[in-house]
Amino acid sequence: MTTSAATSLAGCLYIVATPIGNAADLTYRAHTILQQVDYILAEDTRHSRPLLKAYNIQTPVQSLHEHNEAQKSTEIIAHLLKGCHYALISDAGTPLISDPGFHLVKSAREAGIAVVPIPGACAIIAALCASGLPCDTFLFTGFLPAKPLARHNKLKSLEKTQTTVLYESTHRIHACIEDIRQIYGEHYQFVLAKELTKKFEHFKHGTADDLLTWLNHSSSA
Description:
The chain is α/β, with parallel strands linked by helices. Helices cover 40% and strands 19% of the residues. The protein is built from nine helices and nine strands.
């Protein structure tokens, strides 16, 4: 059998966006795909099962994360070439955006397997479009390094000529804002988006001091 003939019989790899906080944000198309595929690949099966259960999705779930992706991708590609269909999901939002999946998608493309995006929730876009900052051009830099010096250097390297979007954990957000103040100055304005799509969703606009004061107040309330 030729390569083209083999891939014509292959299954499909769907990249499925899931809610970032509000379970009602799962799209009808995503729901349909998750029910119809042979397997769902989840970053953390324990995290994803409640959502799947809420929508009565009983498709078998396998784990695919940064520690097993390289090894497991070979096995998945083999099954795809035999006609199995897979859906890749992350813990929240759109897969591969600061989440595992790149190695698998790259391998699937190289093998001639169809990779189909199923669009939906994405924290970057949700935060950006409601931030009040320019959206015509922007830079997304993902999660900042955990170590203080590396984080400081990364922030210092970013251009100030366009809107920059980044992720930061709740454990390091105070230190990150302190770094922003030190690097860009006390009058630098930015937006903190928190708990997107959830009950306590909040956008706070202001200087580093404004945001630190707000965070300290909200954490003690």
